[in-house]
Amino acid sequence: MTKAAISIQHTPEKLFFRLYQASNISLRRVAKILDEFNMSAQQLSILGSLSRPGFQSGMTVSEMVNYLLVSRQSLNGVLNRMEEAGYVRRLVNPDDQRSRRVVLSPLGREVFAKMRPRLLEFYRVSLSELSEQEQEDGIRSLDYIIERMTRDA
């Protein structure tokens, strides 16, 4: 087998290992910011999900499970802690009285607004060597991988 063939053969493994490395280092760096707010990465993902434009009325737990790609059990545990801390509220879903919508509380909005500039600066510095097109290509590639893995699960 040629050196090029061996290299191509190991490309998927190398890509997934690089994703693992990037995830680990970004979580460590983001954790330094989040520690100042007594917040976890999971809590940040929930605050970010609920802070997106068009989601002021919140999301159902099922919508959050599908968006964040986490288990319902794991999400409920984090939501319980966030509700106790006053970051989110669970309200009766007007579209389905049997379910709840998770919404940001005023405190949750305030905390997210305070930490977001620091996070955006970390993201900006981390990606500063990539053009906007390269960043968009990376997003498309990751979207494809995520879609493929969730479809095949």
Overall form: globular
Low-confidence stretches: none
Mean pLDDT: 93
User: Care to count the β-strands?
Assistant: 3
**What portion of residues belong to β-strands?**
5-15%
Q: What class would the helix/strand composition place it in? A: mainly alpha
What's the structural domain tally?
A: 1
| Helix-strand pattern | HHEHHEEHH
CATH class term: Mainly Alpha
Using the CA coordinates, give the radius of gyration.
Answer: 18 Å
**What is the architecture at the second tier of CATH?**
Orthogonal Bundle
Description:
The chain has 153 residues and is mostly helical. It has one domain: Winged helix-like DNA-binding domain superfamily/Winged helix DNA-binding domain (Arc Repressor Mutant, subunit A, Orthogonal Bundle). Helix content is 71%, strand content 11%. It has helices at residues 3-35, 41-51, 61-68, 72-85, 106-126, 132-152, and strands at 59-60, 88-93, 96-104. Helix 1 runs antiparallel to helix 5 (106-126). The longest helix has 33 residues, at 3-35. It is globular. The mean pLDDT is 93.
Draw up the topology in text.
Layout: H1 3-35, H2 41-51, E1 59-60, H3 61-68, H4 72-85, E2 88-93, E3 96-104, H5 106-126, H6 132-152
Helix pairs in contact: 1-5
List the defining traits of the structure above.
Arc Repressor Mutant, subunit A; mainly alpha; 153 residues; 3 strands; single chain; 6 helices; 11% strand; three-stranded antiparallel sheet
